[in-house]
Amino acid sequence: MPGPRKTPEERKAIVQAALARQRRADRRRAWLIWGSGAVLVLSLVAAVAFVLVGEVQQREQIRAEAARPVEGEQDFPDQSRNHTSEEVSYPRTPATGGDHAPVWTNCGIYTAPVTQTRAVHSLEHGAVWISYRPDLPKADIDRLTALAGGQEYLLLSPVQDQPSPVMATAWGKQLAVDSSGDGRLPSFIKKYVQGPQTPEPGAACTGGVPG
To answer: Residue 142: inside a domain, yes or no?
Structure first.
């Protein structure tokens, strides 16, 4: 048997209650959507911040490492840079700078000694000169050749009467080591090829003369 008919006021109250429930449900959904979006945005912001902080820290680490000298390197500042066609008597072998030939030695791998006054000009252009005693074992020479292979602004050659078996030289900088496998050699190359010591950064190490 049907119940008593509701009055217009009762029906209106039922409709209003249903609408109120719907509005509450809509608000809950909106808050859930907003909250999820906010969490996503915050997560993205945090991820980007993490990456940026990591990149900044990495750049700072690279700058700090670049500012530190390679262990054992020697520093020879304030060297003259005049061009001369005369022979130059350098205070050390290999030379770390000073007056030099007007034309540079092309960077590359040489199995015979190069002209020192031209090699010094290459150093002025930002090259690193890896040199070794002529009696260095072939396995060591092969390792140095592999280290130098494919690198721009790098000279590799034997040097007679140098004080150590292997030496790395840049303008005003020099590192002497006993073995071609010394881990400081790659560090020296990375630090000083076109490094901050270079008097003429960006100048060519090709277009000169071989040897």
So the answer is: yes
Structure tokens, 151: 């690198």
Classify residue 184 as exposed, middle or buried by CB count within 10 Å of its CB (0-12, 13-18, 19+).
middle
More confident residue, 152 or 55: 152
Of the given ranges (40-49, 151-160, 184-193), which has the lowest mean pLDDT?
40-49
Q: Higher-confidence residue: 141 or 57?
A: 141
Same domain, residue pair 85 and 22: no
If asked whether residues 109 and 186 sit together in one domain, one would say yes
For 180-204, write each residue's pLDDT tens digit.
Answer: 999 999 999 999 999 999 999 999 9
**Is 205 part of any domain?**
no
Task: Look at the chain and count its residues.
Answer: 211
> What is the distance between the alpha carbons of residues 185 and 165, in angstroms, rounded to a whole number?
13
Q: Say whether both 78 and 174 belong to one domain.
A: yes
Q: Which residues contact 120 (CB under 8 A, 6 or more apart)?
A: 88, 90, 95, 97, 98, 99, 100, 101
Q: Which residue has the higher pLDDT, 89 or 39?
A: 89
- End-to-end CA, the chain: 116
- Report yes or no on 187 lying in a domain: yes
Burial of 56 (0-12, 13-18, 19+ CB in 10 A): exposed
User: How far is residue 20 CA from its own chain's centroid?
Assistant: 64
Rounded to two decimals, the pTM is 0.70
pLDDT, position 30: 67
Does residue 198 lie in a domain region?
no
The parent domain of residue 89 ranges over: 74-192
